[in-house]
């Protein structure tokens, strides 16, 4: 734990973000009533401020519910070409992965193995399984379902 008193977790059952007191061992989801063990949960945000916490929960729930369906006139190849162009610039691997996640989330609502394979046909980002593991480790990424990723902005 980072020393902060409050945090945000996302319920694995219903997908809603909720504020938690990190001094507790468990909490209940206010949306679906599932009991959550905090030691098994990923903490997406840490703070000591209640006002900052409520703002962050609102932002996270807004981001999680903001699934966009790509417009029909936009071709998938244009999306992947844009990603390749943007990640070719200087930056760390972390920066490049965030660019990939940001664009894919914005265009498709979420992304997974299929989208990463399409991208890997245009640029080498490594093995797909290893790439998916890297996305799982990023604090800016939420995995609402196994193998499906969403970038969460704060």
Tell me the span between the first and last alpha carbons.
20 Å
Poorly predicted runs of 5 or more residues:
67-73
User: How large, in whole angstroms, is the Cα Rg?
Assistant: 17 Å
**Largest β-sheet summary:** 3 strands, antiparallel
Structural class: alpha+beta
Mean pLDDT figure: 84
In total, the number of domains comes to: 2
The number of strands is 8
Q: Which overall shape is indicated by the principal axes computed on the Cα atoms?
A: elongated
Portion in beta strands: 15-25%
Number of helices: 5
Strand order of the largest sheet: 2-1-5
Task: Report the order of strands and helices.
Answer: EEEEEHHHEHHEE
Helical percent range? 40-55%
Question: Would you give an account of this structure?
Answer:
By secondary structure, the chain is an alpha+beta fold. The protein folds into two domains: 6-65, no CATH class; 76-151. 40% of the residues lie in helices and 19% in strands. It has five helices and eight strands. The protein has helices spanning 50-65, 76-87, 93-108, 113-120, 128-137; strands spanning 6-10, 17-21, 26-28, 35-37, 45-47, 111-112, 141-145, 148-151. The strands form three sheets. A three-stranded antiparallel beta sheet has the order 2-1-5, covered by helices on one side. A three-stranded antiparallel beta sheet has the order 6-8-7. Strand 1 (6-10) and strand 2 (17-21) form a beta hairpin. Helix 2 (76-87) packs antiparallel against helix 3 (93-108) and helix 4 crosses helix 5. It is elongated. Mean pLDDT is 84; it is low at 67-73.
């Amino acid at each position: 734990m980072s020393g902060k008193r409050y945090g945000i977790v996302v319920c694995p059952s219903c997908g809603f973000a909720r504020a938690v007191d990190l001094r507790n061992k468990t909490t209940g989801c206010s949306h679906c009533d599932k009991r959550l063990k905090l030691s098994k949960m990923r903490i997406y945000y840490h703070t000591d401020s209640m006002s900052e916490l409520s703002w962050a929960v609102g932002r996270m729930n807004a981001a999680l519910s903001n699934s966009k369906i790509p417009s029909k006139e936009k071709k998938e190849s244009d999306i992947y070409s844009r990603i390749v162009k943007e990640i070719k610039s200087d930056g760390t691997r972390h920066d490049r992965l965030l660019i990939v996640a940001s664009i894919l989330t914005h265009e498709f609502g979420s992304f997974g193995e299929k989208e990463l394979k399409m991208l890997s046909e245009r640029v080498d980002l490594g093995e797909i399984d290893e790439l998916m593991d890297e996305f799982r480790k990023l604090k800016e990424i939420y995995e609402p379902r196994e193998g499906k990723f969403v970038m969460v902005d704060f």
